[in-house]
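Sequence, structure tokens quoted for completeness.
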Amino acid sequence: MNKKTILFQVKQELKKHVDKEYAIGEKNFFKEKIKSYGVRAADKRKVAREQYKLVKNLDKKDFLAACEALYKTGYMEESTIAADWAWRKKEWWDKKDFKLFEQWVKKYIDNWAKCDDFCTHTVGFVVFSYPELIKEILKWTRSKNRWVKRAVAVCLIYPFGKKKPHLKTIFKVAKILLTDEDDMVQKGYGWMLKEASNHNQREVFKFVMQNKSKMPRTALRYAIEKMPKNLKQQVMS
């Protein structure tokens, strides 16, 4: 099955779940203009799961082409499905695939939802699996693209709910992005610190205390969200 046929079938399935009222409300979650049919998250995941049958037996090249075809449309729903499918094939990805995924981040990621879907899972997994790629994602901190800068932070959130293997890198990224004026970048690295605090609360608290005078309030609040009340009070005093 070629990518045009796959794309057509996915579109047809998505259109069965369009909720016009949701489509109007969804736009309020984004400052930038988005392309969306108006399909709720649960329904997007359902379509991704059910239509995975179209691609699960493709070879790697054709599978990646199908995912990229979805990203190219620019639609929120199709980007969600591309990210979902890429994650389902995570056992395929190796260091050589990083360059392609980096291109996708730079070309197709244009809002926080697309960034977080793809980077907290597939990109994070590849970086986790191949620590030598850390030097590559550190280059993203110098980007003029807000989503690329957010991506370097959120990909370090992987693995969710577990001890972070790259704590020094997490602090290095936070330090580089510390005074970034973009609120989406601030929220990204604040979230990264918050997740790191699950298992390294003392270290994250120390970092925040050392940098709180320069750290934007948005990032600061995200970083300490999971900390006990007494620590929050020290940070905010």
Remarks:
- The chain has two domains: 1-92, 109-237.
- The chain has 14 helices and no strands.
- The CA atoms of residues 124 and 155 lie 4 Å apart.
